[in-house]
Amino acid sequence: MEKILTMNIVEMRELLKTGGISSVELTQFYLDRAKKYDRSVQAYLRLTEEIAMEMAADADRRIRAGEDGPLLGIPFGIKDIFCAKGLETTCASRMLEGFIAPYDSTIIKKLKEEHFVHLGRVNMDEFAMGSSTENSSFQTTRNPWDTDRIPGGSSGGSAAAVAAGLCAASLGTDTGGSIRQPAGLCGMVGMKPTYGRVSRYGLVAFASSLDQIGPIARNVTDTAVVLGAIAGYDPMDSTSIPQPVPDYTSFLGRDIKGMRIGIPKEYFIEGTEPDVKESVEAAIELFEKQGATLVDISLPHTEYAVATYYIICTAEASSNLARYDGVKYGMRVEGKDIIDMYKKTRMNGFGKEVKRRIILGTYVLSSGYYEAYYGKAGKVRTLIRKDFEHAFEKCDIIVTPVSPTTAFKIGEKVEDPLQMYLSDIFTIPVNLAGLPGMSVPCGFDGAGLPVGLQIIGKPLDEARMLQAAFVLESEKRLKTIPYRFID
Amino acid sequence: MKINKDVVEYVAHLGRLKLEPVEIDLYTSQLDRILEHMDRLNSLNTEGIEPTSRAVPVTCVPREDVKKDSITIEDSVMNAPDRKGNFFKVPPVIEVD
């Protein structure tokens, strides 16, 4: 059974199809692993064992009846931010403890139409706010490569569950890097598609103009397969893009001769760890050897991205989180009047980081400060978007490190939110510009921790990014699961 | 110092948050540092630049005016912490003498 861990989803599907394994056996394999190994990783908030076995049995019936599909019978760990009818959806917050979603998000609906298997709900930073999964109200997820370290965030549970082999694939959300950074720090592949590529209907909103859903998987093939299943126009989401979805897997294996790769000078800065720099530079050399042309580019407003991002995302978060008031769903703490009830409920329901962002967001939107902060940030966002537009006149994709460092120690940055915010400096500009970005493993540091390479694409050009990532993956053949998680 | 305890307390009130004194102290110092970082945007000339509110321009197309099912009333109130029939129940909003 351990050979499952080295298979991609296409191979798993073939095995299911030919009767080499059943979906029930595959699901049981991952559930057993989760029960055995998740004590040290703490990726899962809840296993949905009964539902998983029912879905797996249904998938087996369909396979026997001759049905086919790219995700039929494949077990997923789902970030606890997507509404799934009848299941508790907490966003790792006490505020939503006990909330049972009354409907399916589009993403869950699509996966159900593919007859996937819902293994369980994975951990995250509360309401997706954070870069380390230390802000979960329930538990701190650990990095499978070194359990004293963070897995990244906010989709840390998703990345850690895949990295430790506790599910075949996972889904995350990315507001400022929350798919790419944890995927990078856990040695996995993560894709944040173009804003609007994947429907956000039924996703618990954090910062609506930035949030985007995407896959976290063990390899590029799985990423392409999952992206193909979840992308596409949805009339339930007014920001959804009405464009056809290509067959992403058909781009894998194509060479990159003549592809122009932009190298932005602002992303190779002081403060980036030497091992990270070395791995990323080696990947760039590899691309050149494979026939790509390297192009020096400049993204001059990069240094303003973190400030711009935290004004916009906190402003939007303060508005989106106003709905948690103790009236409609979730926690309620009684008060002497309704305002008192609101305040006590929100004081007890939200964690430190969420409160910090609500206060910051309310401040930058308040009378007298709106223009100086929110108005200004909107304009700087335009400058950042234009930087990318100019750069893409010269190149087809852009490559950079995902993060300046490999995974840091648990607790290391908790007391210094600004330092935590600055750790997302390479991923944030992509969200501000609405572009697709992905993380693909490119090496390990001296301590054996994974280093991720970020590939940034033109709007809706995810296929070309996957094409380049597949070349790197095929040439590097890096280890994708730590030894301690192999029996 | 851009921000002080009174401002944090007032903004928290606007955001309907009750804070412990220790939280007010913590947020005051942390937010002051964060806002100082945000102030670097003021060094940029943005005259004549239009703000971007959404990253990819999408035209909002009205859907056809066709009646569709929505979630049931029961589903919409099933998570209410307190309810009376199909209504959300809350403490008094209007003071009564």
What features would you describe in this structure?
The complex is a heterodimer of chains A (487) and B (97). Chain A is α/β, with parallel strands linked by helices and 487 residues long. Chain A is 38% helix and 13% strand. Chain A has helices at residues 9-17, 23-41, 49-64, 106-113, 156-163, 180-185, 220-230, 274-289, 305-320, 338-349, 352-365, 370-391, 417-422, 428-433, 462-476, and strands at 44-47, 75-79, 117-122, 169-174, 189-192, 212-217, 260-264, 293-297, 397-401, 437-444, 450-457. In chain A, helix 4 (106-113) links the parallel strand 2 and strand 3 (117-122). In chain A, helix 2 runs antiparallel to helix 3 (49-64) and helix 7 (220-230) packs antiparallel against helix 15 (462-476). The longest helix of chain A is centred in the C-terminal third of the chain and has 22 residues, at 370-391. Chain A is globular and about 65 Å long. The mean pLDDT of chain A is 96. Chain B has 97 residues and is mainly α. Chain B is built from three helices and two strands; from the N terminus they run H-H-H-E-E. Chain B has helices at 5-14, 21-38, 73-77, and strands at residues 83-84, 87-88. Chain B has a two-stranded antiparallel sheet. In chain B, a hairpin with a 2-residue loop joins strand 1 and strand 2. In chain B, helix 1 (5-14) crosses helix 2 (21-38). Chain B is flat, with a radius of gyration of 23 Å. The model of chain B has no long low-confidence stretch (mean pLDDT 90). Chains A and B meet through helix 9, helix 10, helix 11, helix 12 and helix 13 of A and helix 1 and helix 2 of B.
